[in-house]
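Can't paste images in this forum, so I'm doing it all in text. The chain is below; anyone willing to post the predicted structure tokens underneath?
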Amino acid sequence: MALSDPQLQRLADAYGIATEFWDWKGRLTPVSDDTVVAILRALDVDAATPEAATAALVELDMRPWRSALPSCVVVQAGAEASVNVHVDEGASASLCVRLEEGGERAAVQIDNWAPPRHVGDRLVGEATFRLPRDLPLGYHRLHLDSDAWSVESTLIVTPHFLGFPPAMGAKRAWGYATQLYSVRSADSWGMGDLADLGDIAIWSATQQFAGFVLVNPLHAAEPMTPLEPSPYLPSSRRYVNPLYIRPESVPEYAFLDERSRRAIIARKERLLKDVGAEDRIDRDPIWDAKLAALRIIFDFGRTPARQMSLDDFVRREGRQLTQFGTWCALVQELGMNWREWPKEYRRPASPEVAEFVAGHASDVEFYVWLQWIADTQLSNAQQAAKDAGMRVGIVNDLAVGVSKESAEAWVLGDAFAQGVEVGAPPDHYNQLGQAWGEAPWRPDRLEDLSFAPFRTMVAGILRHSGGVRIDHIIGLFRLWWIPDGHAPTRGTYVRYPHEAMVGIVILEAMRAGALVVGEDLGTVEPWVRDYLRDRGILGTSVAWFEANHDGTPLAPEAYREYCMASVTTHDMPPTAGYLAKDHIALQHYLGLLTEDVDVEIASFDAQLNRWRAILAERGLFHPGEGEDDVEAMVLALHRYVLASPARVVTAALVDAVGDRRTQNQPGTVDEYPNWRIPLSGPDGRPLTLEDVFASQRAQRLASVMNGFATPLVGLR
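Text version of the structure:
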């Protein structure tokens, strides 16, 4: 259904704003005029009246003519591509490519019969140049000469296809998916940390024969309490959350004087006495204790060699790292929400901010130092995984976005849209839709910035990992924008330059020798899955959601080869809890169901009966296997997934130990303790990492994942 104003419709089409969409039940749903007008306003486009919309269309048509070169051109290697340039009518024009590794390549001018246009008091002509097809991969510069002046912009040449990293070889890889914070060890500070991650990787590799560990997003959170529990609502996706630092693993800890060391030990002992036995993870006291301990270590100082290493890290990370450290220090002084700070502090380049940095240099340096330490400990975890024999190692999770009050939004400013937030339309996860409180990238500003913020973010997350899982990868194609004050159901999709963004991901992953997995669950256009496959990016298959048109489970043979297949995901209960219908009980209790609870239960029971029949028919379900029929069902479901051609398969660590408790209920915040549930056994008792290492359940699941008929007994 078209909008009421044809000019508004043209504007919406030009900016990639959907005016109708297919919902999760297959219904074509129109988008209201006011939603589209609000979305355009977030892009600095006035479309409140037909006259304003007309003027905006005229400006949009003229925009390319106001610049000599496009701000950024992204092409696939080997593909034919051309660039339009704009110079004074009658002036000369020549274009070349200045290569990332040095040297130049000339572009060839081809016919362009477009008439010149008046741009202000200038008459501007357009010329077209064909780029060489054999340009190398990388970040290059377009250089345009015209009479007495020259100008440059960015050219990015991306691979057509990524595929599997060389380290994987021709074999399937399987690994555990885990929420790191939930896996507490005897040595951690009340929650899992980067030292624990290294230990999980060593255990998974040497005792379970796994090829990777998939971990929740480790992105940086707020620098002061209260902390946001969700790892999917970070303050920065470029940097690591120092909450995951193990203070005792910082090299300087070993050289502390006795008084300083006793102070740290005392803080840890008091913390563990208060939170160690809790059945919920409380990040706030953990961070307060760790922050004090880390400040002691920082103030102790570093050897000259260690200082040189820190200085090199700062140089490599550039200005944004210092700006991030500045934001952290400002938060301590002015509060968490930078949008409520005095106006002079709301942008990092202001003189007042520079004055603050000069007066708080030690605080800024401390937060920069924390990033260096976190980066080092993450690197150590990946190295431990590789040294233990993992072919892939740590697979990091990349969140969809950042909070609207985040450091990233402060540092990057208008790269993010104002007056809107990211979410999701109604789907089977949450039938009321979701508002995530995240600020969306502005597609137009990303192009203006040559995708630099996106490039550095992707490169950063791949620096110490063997792969990346991109949460809600549809966000590289389109995102559900919700205007402020609107319900999630009254948002719409906004398209992104997916060719460029996917290409950059592939380029960075190829340089890192890494695996890329796109979480393509939920409401995803079918062509997106085909596109990801054709670019060598894995999709995601969760057994419960893989179904034929009649609702019966999809045969495993019909799964995709290019996918990460699993039985469950972190947005569902562990399999034991799912089998017990815990998700229905929870959604009913929270008022999230749109259908009658009895209808939901009946539908689920029918689904479960179909599953039991198929598993029995295939000889995968062995009643009495393990401790009970629930575990037998868990093992059978994993055998089912392993019968697929999927080259990458995950098993949830919660399934390995029989956990039932839901980690996250989409669409809730404090109604349920999302992201605060410790890893637990079947009886609900929290487990330590040492308990996991001794778990016979985990051994039995690993035996299934490795194709063994009997539990592993330490054979390599």
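The first helix runs from residue 6 to 14. The CA atoms of residues 26 and 523 lie 10 Å apart.
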